[in-house]
Amino acid sequence: MSEIKTHYRNCNICEAMCGLEIKYQDKEILSIKGDQNDPFSKGYNCPKATALQDFYTDKDRLKTPIRRTATGWEDISWDEAFTEIAEKFKGIQNEFGRNALAVYLGNPNAHNLGNAIFLKPFMKSLGTINRFSSASTDQMPHHVASNFMFGAGMLIPVPDIDRTDFMLIIGGNPVVSNGSMMTAPNVIGRMKAIQKRGGKIVVIDPRRTRTAKIADQHLFIRPEKDALLLFAMIHCVFASHSVNLRHLENMVDGLEGLERIAKDYSPESVAEHVGIEAIAIRTLTADMVAADSAVCYSRMGASTQTFGGLCQWLTNVLNIITGNFDRAGGAMFPQPAFDLLRNHKRGHKTSFGQHKTRVRKLPFFNGEFPVATLAEEIQTPGEGQIRSLITVAGNPVLSSPSGHKLAEAFEGLDYMVSVDIYLNETTKYANIILPGTTGVENSHFDIFFNSFSVRNTVKYSAALFEKEDYQRCDYQILNELAARMTDSKVNPYTPEMILDMELKSGPYGEEGMSLQKLIDNPHGIDIGPLMPCIEERIKTAEGRVDLFPQLYVDDLPRLNAVKSHPARDENYPFDLIGRRLVKSHNTWTQNSERLVKGKNPCTLEVHPEDAQVLGISKGQLVKISSIVGEVEIEVVITDDIQKGVVSMPQGWGHNQKGTKMSVAAKQPGVSINDLTDANRVDTLTGNAALNGTPVAIRVA
After folding, report:
1. Which helix (H) or strand (E) holds 457?
2. What's the pTM?
3. How many C-beta neighbours within 10 Å does residue 572 have?
């Protein structure tokens, strides 16, 4: 037998960018461990990394194209698949218009070097404005806030967690997620370091999460009331004359208008709605103001709700007016080696609202429409109706609101294609499935997550195993389809060619940053901590921060209506929220034997007092229903959940006929998105309101 070798790479399953050390022999992986010499993760990795081996060896994984027929699926050649797809898509567009074709992009595209680079020219080749993605299920409020406050949707401030003295976490569970819109391997170690240096961590959440359990303080909050809490804290900052802009003093607009409206949100006026006493809100604000450095980090619970846009705007505002923006220990901008904003000019005209969806008139932004509107755009007849679709590495039937309604819509399409390695709950509706290579067969560089990183680092990972001749990389599939759609030659560039050019043209290029330099440093290169850089990074026309964009002011009557007339549907008396699990990532890790083994993780958490009133006990099956659907699920009774609130994880429901994910089928769970309502969105940004869904519970 040949010798045992070692390969170093970044894990590309979640956002944390953990460095891995992989021992292998020939084409067999022997072990996957944390890379002790990775300057960013320093040997840390979570259980999900083992799934890279499981994906590579998965018997259910597709490697060549298949086509759906009346009698089942059949193998076809790549050429036959590409020829048919181009013919069908062109025919539909010729008959019904360019926008009769739509694209859905799943979360794994952000973790794929080739797709991250080549999706833009691929989209251009299709000529449609109908693009949808997972971004509008969880993060669009961040991008909209950055667009209107700092001039670019990708200019996202992240917590300088390694140097802060006070960290306020609203609706986030980074100990489990490894950070989200905050790339930070070993969050638990980084948080304990805050406490070790005498700092404080406070978590605001309707659930006592794993993050809350290691924090110094946890406050329960009613779902979807985070914007009121943030406003009350901002009120306190103004009322106590504690505003401190520091070096931003002469580059911030809108402070007076902000102070004027904040007067209406005293802690006393919001306490009952929020579920936190006024004195606790005042103390929380005072603690943040008094800290040498502080940062507020709002995430999933604050984004995936009907006021997600307001939450992310107010989070930025709070960090700015307390003097904790663009400053060590506060909210800062990374300076990535591959700079996605390199060609983004100051004053660039925003695409926000450039188009609106046909049916609900929700806004277009960042090159896409809200995915919550996809089903109705397919099923509503008329000019511009979507009649064909291509999904790339996504499973929206399980990951998007009203997923079962989306399945009905997919079934009615004229033609559908999926680029995916699995026959799953979404791809089973496709006419053709095109499988790409995955994980260890691909080279990797984190284009997006270096832009959200809590430290400036850079790392390239070559492919561990060469693909077989009969396989195609995802980017090769996209480039071939683009060539067929435009009757042109296939793009001759590789991801490595583009990567090398961008590294050399980026902010560290003058220091010799290049692909070769990264190849010579397989553990990665530490560039250093986040640095103040707002003056050079900001992209607004005048180079100033807008604290008070009119877009948010116009949305306040909607928030005030909740404050003055809190609605409650007696038929659905509970608020449903999601939860993250350490050993799963959205919908695409459930076919890994090592990640799903053990007891059923897809359970409904219920408060003991609620359980007593309902007459249910631990382990019992209950029916949980919403205005759009009903599922049966096992109950866990715990005081970690707030009374009146229930919680279940998202990404499950692998129990549908016509799929081929045998491991996932053994531990299928149920889909939370059979309960979430596609009509519940943050109307400001179009983001899905997955949290706070009104539900009813009864014994099954």
Report:
1. strand 455-458
2. 0.97
3. 17
- Taking the C-alpha atoms of residue 641 and residue 497, their distance in angstroms, rounded to an integer, is 50
When divided into structural domains, the chain yields a total of 4
Which of 302, 337, 372 terminates a domain? The answer is: 337
Which domain covers residue 322, as residue numbers?
Answer: 154-337
Which 8-state DSSP code applies to residue 667?
Answer: S
Pairing of strands 66-69, 72-75: antiparallel
Please check whether residues 375 and 412 belong to one and the same domain. yes
pLDDT of residue 569: 83
Residue 446: its pLDDT value, please? Answer: 96
Residues β-bridged to residue 697: 624
Give me the helices (H) in 77-158, please: 78-96, 113-126, 135-138, 140-150
Question: Are 193 and 321 contained in the same domain?
Answer: yes
Instruction: Provide the phi-psi class of 138: left if phi over 0, else alpha when psi is between -120 and 50, else beta.
Output: alpha
Distance CA 497, CA 395 (A): 30
Q: Are residues 209 and 299 in the same domain?
A: yes
Determine the Cα–Cα distance for residues 535 and 109; give it in Å rounded to an integer. 31
H helix or E strand, kind and range, residue 33: strand 28-34
Nearest to 601 by CA among 658, 662, 654, 677: 654
Written as six digits, the tokens of 587 are 């919908």
The one-letter code for the residue type at 404 is H
CATH number of the domain to which 130 belongs: 3.40.50.740
Final residue of a structural domain among 481, 498, 529: 529
Q: Which of 182, 207, 413, 194 is nearest to 298 (CA)?
A: 182
Q: How confident is the model at residue 199 (pLDDT cuts 50, 70, 90)?
A: very high
DSSP 365: B
The single residue listed with the structure tokens 């149920």 is 670
Is residue 539, in this structure, part of any structural domain at all? no
Q: How far apart are the first and last CA of the chain?
A: 57
Q: Which amino acid is at 170?
A: I
Q: Which two tokens stand for residue 541?
A: 């026309």
CA distance 162 to 164: 6
List, in order, residues 6 or more apart from 196 with CB less than 8 Å away. none
C-alpha distances out from residue 552 to 226, 541, 555, Å:
15, 19, 5
In a domain, 144, yes or no: no
Say if CB 210 and CB 181 are below 8 A apart: no
pLDDT band at 424; cut points 50, 70, 90: very high
- Distances in whole angstroms, Cα of residue 327 to Cα of each of 177, 256, 296, 500: 25, 23, 13, 31
| 366 plus 428 within the same structural domain | yes
